[in-house]
Structures are given as C-alpha cells and as structure tokens.
Write a structure and sequence with these properties.
The structure is a homodimer of 367-residue chains. The first copy, chain A, has 367 residues and is α/β, with parallel strands linked by helices. Chain A contains 13 helices and 11 strands. Chains A and B meet through helix 3, helix 4, strand 7 and strand 8 of A and helix 3, helix 4, strand 7 and strand 8 of B.
C-alpha cells in the first residue's frame, strides 16, 4: 500500500462549525485518519458504480472491525434524485443506523450532494465526511456545505446547508478520472480565476499549459487555492444572503442548460463552461467587461477543451423560461453575477429580458 | 369578524435565531399580523381536510392581493410521509415559488412538522410561520424547531432542526377541536408538569378540573406556561445534545407503540399518555419514583381521560424491538428519560432488557 503524503491542511472556520480539509496523495488508505473522524461504531459509505471498483475496498478495509454498510448508486447527475435518496434512507433504517452513525461520501459532486443531504436529514442530522474523487468535487462541491437533490423541474431544488465533519482529498484519484471529467473540473477552477484576481486568472492559464496530472504537488496547490477562495467567501456568508451569490457566476445559465437537456448532455462543469462564457458576454454587452477580457476567457475555456457556446438546437425562449425557475430569483427579478474584470464580480438585478435574449443569441453557435 | 385579542407574547431567543409566539383569540383574522411576517410576495398555506373548511378562507383573505397557493393534505399521522412532502414540493415548483416565499403551517403537529421540513429543504430553506390549531401543536409541536416526516419503519426518521419565523396561536381554534384531540393535547401538558416542578404538576391537576374551553384566558395561560418551559429547555440545547432529551419523557414508549400500530390506533398524545405511565412505572420499579407519585400521575392521566395501559393484544417482544429503532439510541444502548419526582427527570442509559421487559408486562392491561 502506498504511504500517504499530505500537501495541504486547510481549516474552515464557520460561525457554528469548524472542520479540516486534508489534501494529499494515497490518503484514502490512511486508516488512522479515516477512523479518527467516526462519531460511533457504525459507518455507511455511499458511492457509485464507477468509483466503487476503484476505491471502495480500500475504504472498507479501514472499517473492517465495525459495522460498515455500503450504498452503490448508478453514476450520473440523473440519479441525484429522490429515488437514490430513499435507497440511502432505507439502508440506514433497515441496518439500524443510530444517531451516532457516520456517512462517507466517496465520489464526485453528485455523491457528495446526495450523501450530505441524507446526513443532514437522517435522524435530523448525523455526521458525514467528504471523500471527493473528481476534480470538480475537490475544488468546489466539497466546500461550502450545500447539499441537494434535483427535482424533475429543476436542479438542486431540495436541499440544505450542512457542513461535513471533514474533507479528505486524494489527488491520486484524479489519475483514474476520465479526461472529460477532469476538463469539466477545470471549468470551476477557471471560475475561481474570474472571482479571485487577474493574477490568479493568469496563474490558472499558466498551470493549464502544464500536464497537471503528472505534477501532483502543482495540482494539489491549485486545488488548495480554489478551496481557500471558496472557504473565504463561505466563511463570510454561509447561507448565501450576500457575497456567496458570487460563487454562482455562470451557474444561472448552466443550471438552465442542464435542466433543458435533462442533465444528460453535459457534465455539470461543461455546462458551467458555456455558462461562464454567457455571463462574460452579457457583462461585455452591458458595458462592464472589456472585449479583451471576454476574449481571454474564451481562449482559456478553449485551452481547457470545454464547450463555450450554446448549441444551435437549443430553443432560447424555452431556455429563458427555465432560467426563471432558478433559485437566485428574488421578488420575481432575475439576478445575474456579472463581471467587470477578473477579480471584480458583482450581482446585477437589472438585466432586461431583451438584453438577456440578445446575449443568448450571440452566445449561440452559428449556422 | 371578531376583534383579535392577545393574551401572551413570548420571545424565543436561540443562539442563531429569534422569533415570537403570539397567543390570543381571533388572531388568525389579524391581517396586519399575518402580512407583517412575509418575506416576499408569495405564500403557500399547507393545511388538511379537517382544518381547511374552518380557517382556510380566513387566512387566504389576508393574502388576497398576492400570490397565495394552497396544499390541502388528508388528515392524520399516516399522511406525514414522503408522498405528502412531494405534494408540497410539486406545488411550490409548478407555481414558481422562489427563495423568498413564505410557508404557513395551518393545522396540528403533523402539518407543522411536514411544512417545517418542506420549508427547511425547499431551495435549502425558506421562511415559515406556524399557525397551530390543536392543543398538542400549541403546547409542544410548534416550539423547538424539530421538523420531520415518518418512514414506514419509524416515526420522525427523516427531518431537520429548523425554526419558524413566528408562531401564532389562536385559542379559539381549540373550541372546534374534537374532544379526543383536546385530551390528547393534555398528555403533553401533563408531561410538562412532570418536567417542571411539583407545583406546576399540581396546577395542571387543578386546571384540568375546570372547564378549560370555557375559560380562554386560563387555557392561554396554561399553553403559554408550557411553551415557556419548552423554550427554556430548547434555548439551552437547540440540537438535543443534552438537556433537551428530557422532552422525550414517555416518548420512547409512545413512538414504539405508534410504529407498532402503524400510527392508526392512537393520536400521538394518546400514545404519550401510555408512554408517560410506562416511564413512571419503570422509574418506580428501578427505585427512583415513589409509588405515591406514580399513583398521582395515573390519577391525572385518568382525569384527562387518556389511555394509560398497553393493550393486551400488543406483543411486548415486538414492541421492544421497535424501541431499538428509536433515535435516542447511542452506541447501541437504549436510553430512557426517568423521573425521581415531578420536576426531577434525568436520562438513564443503564436500563437492562429484563427490567424493561418486566415494566412493560406491569404496564400491560390485565386479562
């Protein structure tokens, strides 16, 4: 078994909860680390059919002397639903898991979101640990305490704010990640570039020109930096009453695109790629963002080999309707996160329907 | 329309949330009071088929100038389930309720619990107001922030801690309450007597000898006092890590009895009546409670015309199995709230199976 090595340990201090993010390699086989986080003597590991063959045995080995149950869900955003949630509840209840059980989310964002939601509502809240195995989950989904499932009419419609007891990230897991999923994770990293500063945006650009997977310390640094940016924002605004809304940059578009295509066409990060371009284009059309910065973003998305345009088969009127289901709507006004420059984002509630429609037309692929 | 009159206003101050409980008569028709609590311009009222014909129009009238949707559930604990919860979510989503919507729970404990759970998880948390119309909900279920639905294998298995934005109690609603439901509410009042002090236990005894329904101020005082007792405990321990467990006096038995009979045989308060007797009997058998106090409790339950014994058709082994599903289990030990005297309750984790079994036999109806 490979010896575990730790690159970063980040402390997250929220008003009501503190926890650690461990970033390293081979840390999923660190039995002491995993056992140190148990509340009692019962464990449920939730994972999916893709991740289970790769890492499940390793985790189960750590809990061989206590009750350790497993739920293996099918892989994919379409399974982040009530049915999967019920599978978790049924397993917990039929195996008599008590209030001091500990849930482990072993997988990507979908597994993290649904396991977190199950943990937040089983017996009104039990302990859970995130073991994110995708780049997207490592940089984004495992920090911030948002849990959710989808409803047929909208993404993340039902969920909670609930913090993990710890997050353990093993960059080794990214080696086995399909290339398409790795690129999808880059979309969120690019988002953090836009949120943080021109300097970090440039660093992301430089790092993406390297082979990140062959350089675990560099990759771990990039992941750690994104976690720190997100943690800083979440610490200021855990329940998304203000600044946290900025994290939704590109996401109003992305969520509508995903709902439109029933979560089947794109990975979340791919939809975010298009969403970031749409947000930047809207910002540029409204006179906030320079054409040069819009072009730089477009180039960076291209470098990451992410989709950047709305495919021409998407009906824009129907897409706009879906955007009105988005959670960020207050008093029936659509609110967008726009940008003036990398590092200078803000919430704009005065986007006209016409302006939005024209931007969508410009962001759509030509004939 | 009757002019509203207020008897009590109680401030609940939790570490992370403050709200008011208004206790009065005709306060459900107070348009200003109701409107003062809205977050935006959308409202969903959740109620049941029994309460709707009595008070729904009155509440809807207050919101005639804004979007006001309604979910009317069938009446009863058996409907506190996933299916009803989905009805609420579907209505919210198809009617485009945004994050600033306000949910009103108009009804008893079932409506309060399920509406609170829906509010805590729709868009990761929207505002909700409790309008409890039963005695049980007024004295107990509307204070404390516990929300939940039942699972076929156990009561309140899935839920959250989520505080209402306000609670508005109209004692007039108790006039139309079926006598059986009124008596069920008395069980929780008797529980507060046991929790608080010998003096309050005696006061409950004295008050129950009056016709409470013909004396609204006396009834409001009794309700207010119970709310204050519960608020004091919850303020010290919002998430039930310590003292709050005392509120479960009698409930480990009651929940198992309800699960055994699929929530169909007793109202919750009736099961609590039997549960309180079982807890007292176990306390007496273990040498904590005097026979005199056990007898006083039995007499008080009788005065309230509540069931006090386990019917003889209940299989006690099966009942004990169900008790092991209870949420209050930590590290596989059954924990009971026991009492030394009215006002002196404590959590006991050293109850042997044999002691429990013998107590259940003694608490069962004779041949």
């Amino acid at each position: 078994m490979a010896k575990s090595e730790f690159f970063h340990e980040i402390n997250i201090n929220l008003p009501t909860h503190e926890y650690k993010i461990h970033i390293g390699k081979a840390c999923l086989s660190n039995v002491d680390l995993l056992n140190g986080y148990l509340a009692g003597t019962q464990v449920l590991i939730v994972t999916n059919t893709t991740v289970a063959p790769l890492y499940l045995l390793e985790i189960q080995r750590a809990f061989s002397s206590i009750q350790c149950d497993v739920v293996v869900l099918p892989d994919g955003e379409v399974y982040k639903n009530q049915h999967s949630l019920n599978q978790i509840f049924d397993t917990l209840i039929t195996h008599h898991h008590h209030r001091d059980t500990t849930l482990f989310a072993l997988g990507g964002g979908v597994i993290g979101d649904i396991t977190g939601f199950a943990a937040s509502t089983y017996h009104r809240g039990v302990r859970f640990i995130q073991l994110p195995t995708t780049l997207l989950a490592q940089v984004d989904a495992s920090v911030g305490g948002k849990t959710a499932i989808n409803h047929p009419l909208g993404k993340n419609m039902i969920g909670s704010f609930y913090q993990p007891h710890a997050v353990i990230m093993d960059v080794n897991t990214l080696q086995s990640l399909p290339e398409r999923e790795f690129r999808a994770g880059l979309a969120e990293i690019i988002k953090y570039g836009l949120l943080e500063s021109r300097a970090f945006f440039k660093r992301v650009h430089d790092d993406l020109q390297q082979n990140l997977l062959s350089n675990p310390p560099l990759l771990a640094d990039l992941v750690a930096h994104c976690c720190e940016i997100k943690a800083k924002i979440v610490q200021e605004d855990e329940r998304e009453l203000g600044k946290r809304a900025l994290l939704n940059l590109g996401h109003t578009f992305a969520h509508a695109l995903e709902a439109y295509t029933k979560y089947e066409r794109w990975l979340h990060g791919e939809a975010v790629g298009i969403g970031l371009y749409c947000a930047a284009l809207l910002s540029q059309r409204m006179g906030y963002l320079s054409e040069i910065d819009l072009h730089s973003l477009d180039k960076l998305l291209q470098l990451a080999q992410l989709p950047r345009r709305i495919p021409k088969d998407i009906n824009l009127d129907k897409l706009m309707q879906l955007m009105f289901h988005d959670k960020k709507i207050l008093q029936n006004k659509l609110r967008f996160v726009l940008l003036r420059a990398p590092g200078d984002c803000f919430v704009e509630s005065k986007v006209s329907h016409e302006e939005l429609h024209q931007s969508l037309i410009s962001a759509q692929e030509g004939e």
